[in-house]
Amino acid sequence: MLPFRPHAVVFDMDGLLIESEVLYRDSFLAASEEGGHGMQVETYQKVCGSPWDVITGTIFADYGADFPMDAFRDAWLRHLGVMMAEGVSLKPGVAEILDLLDRLDIRRAIATSSQHTSVTRHLGPYDLLRRFDTIVARGDYTEPKPAPMPYLTAAKRLGLEPGRCLALEDSYSGVRSAASAGMMTIMVPDVAPPTEEMREKCVAVMGDLHAVASLLLRVV
User: Where is the signal peptide (predicted)?
Assistant: First the structure.
């Protein structure tokens, strides 16, 4: 149960609103297989939702400083482009929770590690851009997730204290960002399962956005 009804809900995008993280993961593993790197899914789970410098640092730490990063990145992006060619679907419950927030008169924002062009490309076809009061994307902050700045920026644009906002995240990096910003945080796991650290940082771990909507309805 949430301690109070939030004044705003701040959403991550990849893996929470859209089914993109599974494509990032599968293309990551395809690039690894193509290059013979032997990467495991646990490596991707560690870097899911992270900026490129964190991803490269993690890979170098796990696979050595001589890892062929440029070739790997080129292969990853090539596989990703093929997988995303026909578009990316919405996650279950997106329309329901946005409709509920309309009825409850709760404001909403996006805080994502993706660029604005990516937000427009993925959410525009579903006519979702107009349903958010503000969108904070890469380029709107200088310190990316897991730093708190993306969520602090969203709260500032909404004119609210971070502690009055609820953040919804699917990744370890995102949960750390939202929690360190002082927001109530719910993890809705996608490609990375919840860990003990995630459960400690979150007020709840929910199976999908339908469950989050049901939880919001129970808050007086």
Answer: none
